[in-house]
Amino acid sequence: MNSAVHPPVAECHSNLLLAALPSQEIARMLPMLDQVRVEAGQVLCEAGDPIEHIYFPHDCLVSLLGVAEGRMTLEVGQVGREGMLGVTSALGHDTTQVRAVVQRAGNASRMEGARFRSEVERNPALQKVLYRYTDALLAQAIQIAVCSRFHVLEARLARSLLVTRDRLQSNKFHLTHEFLAHSLGVRRVGVTKAASALQQQGLIDYSRGNIEILDPEGLAAAACSCYAIVREAGAMPVADVPVPDVPVPDGHAG
């Protein structure tokens, strides 16, 4: 990771959670924030770790993984420019509940956990934003858990790719079979079969981890109905978030 420097005000506004705060509060928090670079595959925290830093992504994307028995994982949410990593600190938790892995490299503003907790206690505007964002994260996690239990892998993969597309606002991104397997809680061979099925339908192009969504509407039709719910929950609840206009059908269950 590169050496941290204080981010300019304009950089803070690229994170929609920070941008939802009154300008005087952003200016007051600025000296507490460092701008850092995070790289793809970097683990920002493990489940059970002390919350040492809070991250506000600008153009990176972070995958939140629930962990069972130290090795089995399932993605329970994503954090991009609409939110933050470490929000449970505002609820009084001093340890992390998930493994956070950088899915797309980029920049973020970072604050020490102890300073963040002190800031939450004195800042009603920040409290309001964080409570609403926490509610959105919980909605995502609940729906993903339901999706993982009841929907077929092909539909779940389509949902996951579309959510990533919405967060990155791009039809092209990089995700390895291994990363998708960890995210979806399945074996790599399952991801290979599901991705091949979507590729044969002309919905995506997938080669060596490089994914291109060729037919967003068709992929939305292949996804389960959870996509619409997760997509809506992922939009920043306190500010307008530009989300690509992709038709969302009722979907199907396994």
Automatic annotation (TrEMBL):
<dbReference type="InterPro" id="IPR036390">
    <property type="entry name" value="WH_DNA-bd_sf"/>
</dbReference>
<dbReference type="InterPro" id="IPR050397">
    <property type="entry name" value="Env_Response_Regulators"/>
</dbReference>
<dbReference type="InterPro" id="IPR012318">
    <property type="entry name" value="HTH_CRP"/>
</dbReference>
<dbReference type="GO" id="GO:0005829">
    <property type="term" value="C:cytosol"/>
</dbReference>
<dbReference type="InterPro" id="IPR018490">
    <property type="entry name" value="cNMP-bd_dom_sf"/>
</dbReference>
<dbReference type="Pfam" id="PF13545">
    <property type="entry name" value="HTH_Crp_2"/>
</dbReference>
<feature type="domain" description="HTH crp-type">
    <location>
        <begin position="151"/>
        <end position="217"/>
    </location>
</feature>
<dbReference type="GO" id="GO:0003700">
    <property type="term" value="F:DNA-binding transcription factor activity"/>
</dbReference>
<feature type="domain" description="Cyclic nucleotide-binding">
    <location>
        <begin position="17"/>
        <end position="131"/>
    </location>
</feature>
<dbReference type="InterPro" id="IPR000595">
    <property type="entry name" value="cNMP-bd_dom"/>
</dbReference>
<keyword id="KW-0805">Transcription regulation</keyword>
<keyword id="KW-0804">Transcription</keyword>
<dbReference type="InterPro" id="IPR036388">
    <property type="entry name" value="WH-like_DNA-bd_sf"/>
</dbReference>
<protein>
    <recommendedName>
        <fullName>HTH crp-type domain-containing protein</fullName>
    </recommendedName>
</protein>
<dbReference type="GO" id="GO:0003677">
    <property type="term" value="F:DNA binding"/>
</dbReference>
<keyword id="KW-0238">DNA-binding</keyword>
<dbReference type="Pfam" id="PF00027">
    <property type="entry name" value="cNMP_binding"/>
</dbReference>
<dbReference type="InterPro" id="IPR014710">
    <property type="entry name" value="RmlC-like_jellyroll"/>
</dbReference>
